[in-house]
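[agent] plan:
  1. take the single chain provided in the ticket
  2. run structure prediction with default settings
  3. attach structure tokens to the ticket
  4. add a short note for the reviewer (M.T.)
[agent] executing step 1
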Amino acid sequence: MTLAGLSLAYQRDRALNTALNVLLLTLGVATMVILVLFSAQLGERFERDARGIDLVVGAKGSPLQLILSSIYQVDVPTGNIPLSTVETLRSDPTIGAVIPLAQGDSFRGFRIVGTEPAYVEHYGGETAQGRLWQAPSEAVLGAEVARRTGAGLGQAFVGSHGMAGDGQAHQETPFRVVGVLAPTGTVLDRLILTSVESVWDVHGIAHAEAGGHEEAHEHEHAAPAANASIRGDHGEAEVTAMLVKYRSPLAAVRLPNFINRQTELQAAAPAVETARLLSLVGVGVDAARGFALLLILTSGLSIFVALYTALRQREADMALLRVMGARPVAIFGQILLEGLLLAAAGALLGVAVGHGVVALAAGAFDQLGDLGLSAFAFEPAEAWIVAGALAMGALAALIPAARVFGVDIADTLQHAS
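[agent] step 2 finished; step 3 output follows
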């Protein structure tokens, strides 16, 4: 029998003890893997979606809510702001670009966003099929939207009021799909894009010269923050938020304070708010990481105790192996291999369980899936986690294995008989 076969035979002989040791290590490794996937993927998505956006301007409220709803599309808008604000900011020589967003409706849980082609260009989006919108009621689907809804070119659909898609449907103003975007790995993938004017049309807002004041139809009964319309109290056109790029560093110094002094507006810097969000999340991540490390260390101690106890019970077996010609180094290696096998089983199962939990979480919570959390991506840090688990298993087996060199064959066999 080979050393590996002998090690597996000893593990089967104490199956319950082996299973408990592997389970403990699996839980520790799985927790570490979940944290690695969560922090790495969400951090990367946050950075990718906010890249190139210096400021977000919207209605008064929570700055973090404004960032989450306007850049990451995972929260409800803080309200609406006058359309005139767009041109006011565009006339500022220190501002390079202003991209308006009009939100409030969705289709099968995917948000319908009124904007301009510059929004697609900002994220490097290209049409895989069809073209971008050119006329009212034309819409372009993100890659994920097209995949999950099965919608294609020429298909008509009706948006529903609210971000969750459970509001009243706008049956009188359907959209028609004229394009599907190629995957970008950004927020574009999960949005339905159209013109701002199309969103105004859905909500009965006149927009001749972007300033009509015709009577708007009575809208659904919904909370303003959760289901933001894009009309003012008198039916005038509004937008939900604006994404701003600076042309001059001077804008970063004076613009946020200037905007925040206005009664209707607030300015939020994505870099600041994202850092604040990650720092809040980081406290919980650090605590969970400490707990996972404790589990791994406990499993290492458990492996050490199990091997040490088993080795004392097998001293007669080791003596017989020595009599049969086995060298102490070979027996030492066999015991070390037991520790490595236990650690390898726990590490591999931990990686599998960690990815399985992430898959379940992304499927159960739409927000996590929307933020790009995927169980099918492997991070380099996972290799270090597995290597660390194997090293711990070898270290836990090292002291019990070293006893091989101190065994007195004659005395051991005499006591065994």
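[agent] step 4 note for reviewer: The chain has a mean pLDDT of 79.
[agent] ticket updated
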